[in-house]
């Protein structure tokens, strides 16, 4: 591939990465998830810094290869992906837009905890469908590490809650 990369800006890379979805939460992109932290273009090379979410997250290899594939489509020949643990990832980083996307998808967004995730354990959990707080935890281990299964006593639907971290 010999595309002219001269016109590609950081903003273009961010837009492209907004299309790379989280393998475990496909309704959110890696940008929505605040997993992609930084982008730097250097000639036909690009550097992406990402912060993994849950410790030992098995999806990290999938995310890296999805990012690589997307940036190769843009024409980059050399793609460097660095992991950064400087500022640990937290569900508090998810903005209102990301939270709304989760809720619309049927996942209760993670409780905001201001740096103290254990405070979220006893928080009321709102059903994403009918917004009732009359909910019960069914299983702390959902389909992925970051999700728990709940049941809504009001609309009688099972749903998932995104664990606060
Ligand atoms: Zn409900």
- Biggest pleated sheet: 4 strands, mixed
Poorly predicted segments: none
Amino-to-carboxy terminus distance: 41 Å
Q: Describe the global form.
A: elongated
Q: What structural class is derived from the secondary structure elements?
A: alpha/beta
Oligomeric state as shown:
single chain
**CATH topology call of the largest domain:** GMP Synthetase, Chain A, domain 3
Question: Strand sequence of the main sheet, in spatial order?
Answer: 4-7-6-5
Q: CATH H level of the largest domain: which superfamily?
A: Fe-S cluster assembly (FSCA)
Which hetero compounds are present in the coordinates? zinc ion
Annotation, overall tally of beta strands: 7
Estimated share of beta-strand residues: 15-25%
Order of helices and strands: HEEHEHEEEE
Number of domains: 2
Mean pLDDT: 91
Helix content: 10-25%
**Count of alpha and pi helical runs:** 3
Radius of gyration: 18 Å
């Amino acid at each position: 591939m010999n595309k002219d990369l001269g016109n590609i800006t950081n903003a273009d890379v961010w837009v492209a990465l907004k299309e790379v979805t989280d393998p475990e939460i496909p309704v959110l992109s890696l940008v929505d998830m605040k997993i992609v932290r930084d982008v730097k273009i250097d000639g036909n090379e690009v550097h992406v810094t990402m912060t993994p979410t849950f410790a030992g997250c098995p999806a990290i290899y999938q995310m890296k290869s999805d990012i690589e594939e997307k940036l190769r489509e843009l024409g980059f020949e050399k793609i460097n992906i660095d992991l950064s643990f400087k500022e640990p990832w937290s569900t508090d980083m998810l903005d209102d837009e990301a939270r709304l996307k989760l809720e619309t998808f049927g996942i209760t967004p993670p409780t905001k905890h201001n740096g103290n995730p254990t405070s979220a354990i006893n928080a009321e959990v709102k059903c994403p469908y009918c917004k009732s707080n009359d909910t019960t935890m069914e299983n702390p281990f959902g389909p992925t590490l970051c999700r728990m299964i709940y049941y809504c006593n009001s609309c009688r639907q099972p749903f998932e809650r995104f664990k606060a971290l």
